[in-house]
């Protein structure tokens, strides 16, 4: 109709384009710059998880002075039986002044990028200078993404993949080897323990509801990153390790609401809220790496991370 405002068409950035515009190393630098610049993750609204159809939606909004974005994820547990992904995601990017959507991005690609980037940002400040061994507990896409991101911050001597499915673990290790890193699979418990004991960095990227490594395997000064879930009744690290370690989280309130590793350790009396340190304090130099105990990073994935990287992808241009 005459006089009606004309909204510009949406630009679509698929997974390949997102990765072309923002590398793993750039992603880590963008997140650090945001926290250095004063972004406070505590300002993120909580994610909502309404039931929908045969599963649920996860809705994750965030805002900065310049832009606003929201990631919508669908979780359909029966999809793998249909040959479809269990989790699918889209990201809507808009300017803060008019809230006009301008770019639609592949949300799954953003998740695959921002989760390892957040881990690498924390590990860069918490891991030993020399990392002879990286252990990846889990063999999915996040394990591969973490190997790539962590190789940007440390000269990794060797990588060990630990996975329940031998074929998936082998495929993950082969992919890591193709990137130029020495990598093997640890299948039996003794080999897993040996690898974890010598590791400077351990990444837990599983769907397990119970701890996947033993507390006494972790050396003082080592860095353990747990990314497995954002559910309060699931954990990859036991209460003894959480109570023994310097614990860094993206945001304290979010961790107390969503991070099972934290919530259960507090419930069991091994940890208190005052033991939790927000990531921005680490980045700003208000806390430092521990050498007399382990350093644990527990993340659940937050909306601000997606928005910062979406901004980076949009600014990078075609």
Structure description:
The structure is a single chain. The longest helix has 20 residues, at 107-126. This protein has helices at 15-21, 24-36, 107-126, 141-150, 166-178, 189-198, 239-244, 252-258, 260-267, 279-283, 303-316, and strands at residues 11-13, 51-52, 55-63, 67-75, 87-95, 101-106, 133-137, 158-162, 183-185, 201-204, 223-226, 246-249, 276-278, 295-298. It contains eleven helices and 14 strands. The two termini are 32 Å apart. The protein is of the alpha/beta class and 318 residues long. An eight-stranded parallel sheet has the order 9-8-7-10-11-14-12-13, sandwiched between helices. A six-stranded mixed sheet has the order 1-6-5-4-3-2.
Please tag this protein with its features.
318 residues; alpha/beta; eight-stranded parallel β-sheet; six-stranded mixed β-sheet; globular
Produce a short descriptive summary:
The protein is built from eleven helices and 14 strands. It is globular, with a radius of gyration of 20 Å. Helices cover 36% and strands 22% of the residues.
Binned, the helix content reads: 25-40%
Secondary-structure element series: EHHEEEEEHEHEHEHEEHEHHEHEH
Distance between the termini: 32 Å
Cα shape: globular
Count all strands and give the number. 14
Mean pLDDT equals: 95
Spatial order of the strands in the main sheet? 9-8-7-10-11-14-12-13
Computed over alpha carbons, the radius of gyration is 20 Å
Largest sheet: 8 strands, parallel
Q: List the uncertain runs.
A: none
């Amino acid at each position: 109709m005459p006089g009606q405002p004309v909204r510009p068409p949406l630009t679509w950035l698929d997974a390949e384009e997102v990765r072309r515009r923002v590398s793993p190393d750039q992603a880590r630098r963008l997140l650090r710059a945001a926290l250095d610049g004063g972004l406070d993750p505590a300002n993120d609204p909580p994610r909502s998880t309404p039931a929908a159809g045969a599963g649920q939606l996860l809705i994750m909004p965030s805002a900065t002075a310049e832009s606003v974005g929201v990631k919508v994820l669908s979780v359909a547990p029966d999809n793998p039986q249909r040959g479809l992904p269990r989790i699918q995601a889209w990201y809507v990017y808009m300017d803060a002044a008019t809230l006009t959507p301008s770019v639609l991005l592949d949300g799954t690609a953003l998740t695959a990028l921002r989760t390892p980037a957040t881990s690498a940002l924390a590990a860069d400040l918490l891991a030993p200078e020399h990392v002879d061994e990286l252990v990846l507990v889990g063999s999915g896409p996040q394990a591969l993404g973490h190997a790539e991101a962590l190789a940007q911050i440390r000269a990794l001597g060797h990588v060990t993949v630990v996975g329940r499915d031998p074929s998936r673990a082998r495929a993950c290790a082969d992919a890591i080897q193709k990137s130029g890193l020495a990598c093997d699979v640890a299948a039996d418990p003794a080999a897993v323990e040996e690898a974890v004991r010598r590791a400077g960095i351990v990444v837990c990227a599983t769907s397990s509801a119970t701890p996947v490594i033993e507390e006494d395997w972790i050396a003082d000064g080592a860095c353990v990153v747990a990314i497995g879930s954002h559910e309060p009744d699931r954990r990859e690290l036991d209460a003894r390790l959480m109570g023994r370690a310097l614990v860094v989280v993206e945001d304290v309130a979010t961790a107390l609401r969503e991070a099972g590793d934290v919530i259960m350790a507090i419930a069991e009396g091994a940890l208190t809220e005052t033991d939790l340190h927000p990531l921005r304090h680490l980045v700003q130099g208000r806390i430092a790496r521990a050498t007399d105990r382990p350093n644990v990073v527990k993340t659940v994935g937050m909306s601000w991370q997606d928005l910062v990287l979406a901004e980076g992808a949009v600014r990078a241009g075609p």
